[in-house]
Amino acid sequence: MHSLLAGQPGVATSKQAWLNKLRSSAVESVSELTIPTTRDEEWRFTDLTMLTKVSLQPAQTSVKLSAADIQRFHIKEAENCLVFVDGVYAAHLSKIDNSLIILNNLSSLVDSQAALLQAHLAQQVASAGNVFAALNTAQLRDAAVIMLPRDTQAKAPVHLLFIATQKEVVSYPRTLLLADNGCEATVIEDYVSLQDETYFTNAVTEFVLADNARIHHVRVQREGVKAFHIANCAATLSRGSNYQSVNIAMGARISRYNLNVKLAEGAECSADGLAMISGRQLADTHTCIDHAQPHAISRQLHKCIVGGGAHAVFNGKIMVRRGAHHTDSEQSNHTLLLTDKAHIDTKPQLEIFNDDVKCTHGATIGQLDKDEVFYLQSRGVTHEHARNMLTYAFGAEVIERIPVASLKHSLEQTVLEQTSAKI
Fold it and tell me: Fewer beta carbons below 10 Å: N end or C end of the chain?
């Protein structure tokens, strides 16, 4: 395989021509599509009627933030951080050290990296048939672009921070990561809010891994309590590459995360997730792990902690294509319901078109074990504290898989603080 970052001969390098064409094509797709309803099979558990009734516009003015305003979201291990406020790149809040990697906002790279951008941007998450991806591409202006040259070992994580500050605003976060042969890096995709009014985040993230690349992807969604959050992420893995993903969903009134991973020969991926919701929240996670070629391995653990009258959805598909022999895939979904009104709709799917494979899946739904609660009480722990401890332990298994110590600690503290409120 040729080097991913070696360039594409014959590709137009005009700053605007290909990008404008990309946007125009997305606009055409939007005109042909509609917002999905519960009559659509892929959306039958997620009603977006509330979203369609809200008046939303892209941010017309920018909110001036200082470093002190966002200090609590700082990740000390991250030497590189790109910050976007209501979808607009904030250079004065960002920190870029390009000693090893190419990292910047799209507009800063559209000339020098035009060939690569044209070859990969909007190629993993297509606009056709996906109205939210089409809307994102049609509005494409700013975007986080990460390019990892061959054999780069980026020891410090890259932090992408997307901040919502205004009500009734829609933002379109965009991320593109190109990982060349043999490189390794950790990327943190972080969605936060400085206000609790209604707004909409519509995000698209694309990862392209060349041969033997290794990427850790940590995604944290902690939007405001009245927010809508819909995101599409796709990762394309080449021969022998490795994609490790941890997705944490705690915020938003309604959230939907679509993750699609395509594995080439000998590639490996893990796609772990934790949804922790309460009140009237709805968190919907749809994943598709596509074993396109032989000898690939995938592991998936998705957990849900559901309190109040909240509703969690998990739809996990494992696809094994013809010729993808010696596929090894495991998927499990475990849900903890903290109240009688909390509920989950879970749908594991296996689509296997090949023999000589090893594929398993399983799902469990339950409440806290009364015997375990009683045991802790017999050791002097209060009933409420015992329930909190067991709830925390249930979610901690996923959080422990985050390879960034300070972020892991911060999320553990958040879970500990929120546990009693979920019950």
Answer: N
